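During the second half of the funding period, the structural biology subgroup turned its attention to how the target accommodates small molecules. The most pressing case was adenosine-5'-diphosphate, which had performed well in the primary screen but for which no bound structure existed. We therefore specified the complex as follows and requested a full 3D prediction, including the ligand pose.
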Amino acid sequence: MLTGCGHDVSPNVLVKKEKHFHDTDIHVVIDGIQVKDPTNDFLFEELIGNGSFGQVYKAKGLQTGELFAIKVTPFRSRDITPKQEVEIMQRIYHNNLMSPLAIYYWKQKLYICMDLCCPGALSNLYRKLGPFEENEIAFVAKEVLQGLQYLNDFGYMHRDIKSDNIIINEDGEVKITDFGLTGWIEDREDQKEPIGTPQWMAPEVSQAQEHGKGYSHNCDIWSLGITMIELAEARLPLQFDPPEAVYTFWSEQKASPQLNGNKEWSNSFQSFVQSALTMDPSMRPTAKELLKHKFNSQINITPFTNIFLDSEVTTG
Ligand SMILES: Nc1ncnc2c1ncn2[C@@H]1O[C@H](COP(=O)(O)OP(=O)(O)O)[C@@H](O)[C@H]1O
Ligand SMILES: [Mg+2]
């Protein structure tokens, strides 16, 4: 049993998917949620993130003037995804994973209030500033692996590791966010469909329906490998139109993407990426194993302290 947010909870609770309740009973369904209008407590300012499930707004606390990020997701009584996301966020507590500060439910919407992280998502950063340096990538890799190891120890896999879901705060700390697709490692039924974002998805996840075997937590390691190339080159190594074309691609293709050879990358970075992008999931390392790779000892303090000073870089 592990402790998250000050409560002793069993991760097994997650697999119980209650399907029948009234919206008025939301506080029974999601523990610790406040059923009240968030605009009584926050002034919603600009939209800073628009993902596939929700919108994230910058918001000012009306009492203190403090700034927050609030994720707003439509929520009706039968929706499982936002409910799981909130429950998982309430249970996990680690410096490399985003925690909720408060959760509200009001008029069929969930509001997840979090620390506002500036400069924000890695994808925003490379789109504005270009490719990352190798020492920056090494730092991100280590921090993400630490967060993933914690999630795995808890019995979860994230399933949507990508540059949009890894964010940096003003202290240069790296946080994994967006637990909307996070799954329970043992829940094989849940693994019969490809879940994640196609371009970052491990081959075995994209083939889940075809093979019907399920997959495991090292699917996140593949996605991290793709993200590392993405940061190094400021573009994705594999692009598909439509994105779902990746499913057929991996049924035919048997070679992993690689770092572009035009730039001088260290041997340890190349070997790290190669290891993360091991095609065979039974040979691919877990977060715990990959944390021992020498690439992770390259940098121990954040290289991101000055990014926030760049006025061009803001969230959104
Ligand atoms: N705490 C935060 N601080 C700053 N930006 C954030 C924060 N949380 C999310 N974002 C931004 O909002 C985007 C969407 O949030 P996310 O939780 O990933 O939603 P979705 O589930 O819709 O993808 C992220 O990619 C990021 O750019
Ligand atoms: Mg997201």
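Two results from this model are relevant to the next phase. Residues 26-115 form a domain with the Phosphorylase Kinase; domain 1 fold (CATH 3.30.200.20). The longest helix spans residues 134-153.
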